Amino acid sequence: MKKRIIPIRIRRPDDMHFHPRSGRMLQIVLPYTSKVFSRAVAMGNLLRPVVTADDAAVYQREILLNVDDYFTPIMTIMLTKQTTPEIISEAFRGGIRVLKYIPNNVSTNSENGVVLTELQNYYPVLKKVEELGMVFSGHWESPFDKKGIAVPEMAREVEAIRFLDWVVESFPRLKVVVEHASTERMIEYVKEAPGNVGATLTVHHAILVYSDVCDDTDKIYNPHHYCKPIAKSPSDRDAVIKAMISGNPKFFFGSDSAPHPLSAKEKIFPSAGIFTAPVALPLLCGLFEENKALSQLEDFVARFGAEFYGLPLNDDKVVLSKKIWTVPECIEDIHIFKGGERLNWYVENR
Fold it and tell me: What SS3 string covers 240-295?
């Protein structure tokens, strides 16, 4: 007789990094996060970036109009060239607890971001973030080396560590999140850093490697696997998995689910981002099961991120069943990660 696998119940998870977009796109993609996760950190690098408390309030209202009462977005504002300590204080009074950082032109809609080499000019801003106990959540990639020479995408995360280290050393009480850590070097840095430094890990960086995205000439042949930071080497991927299942509270889940329409993904130079929200938790179940670490899954997705952010743990539960299902290729004109493939785990409806 075939052994029946009993569904598992875990604390309802949090997604500490996602991109719900806005307008019609938000209406399409947001339910795939809000019906599984209790909370999620909503990044504000929109076409019109979220840079003030008022911007965040408008964006929060748009999100809340499209979710049920049980989902709570964690709102952010962006660090831009115009950000001042006064803007930070006003945002804090408005309930914002996260300053989001993408260096200038490193990723989607970051044209107004602060260049890494000029980050030290924003010492007063970071000091205010530290004083208020806010989180500084950053996309750490540098397009140039110390001599100003362009570096390939594979090397950009490691190249940014020197800038990250300046922040960590200069602000010993600042909570710093390294978003979507994708290299062994960055993961080792976070491990060795003080306790106020943590990192989010994505499911796609635990699955993809560079050859799943680019060919031997560095040309992108699979745009639906293209994201920033780009997928790395097998050893880097293995380091991501090892950190996920380690039980180290410095590492917690952030999907970086970043949908784009097919027209943006399939153009000559595709937009960076992978829509993983519909499959993130089932894929994580599979990864943790393969590595004999299912008992660590709840902490990774539902405890460590909340504790780092100083949030109460969720009381609600989610049920995960061992059930084979086929991932749809697309939702309207948005490609889903692993679309068309069969997965072994399924999240039961709330």
Answer: HHHHHCCCCCCEEECCCECCCEHHHHCCCCCCCCECCCCCHHHHHHHHHHHCCCHH
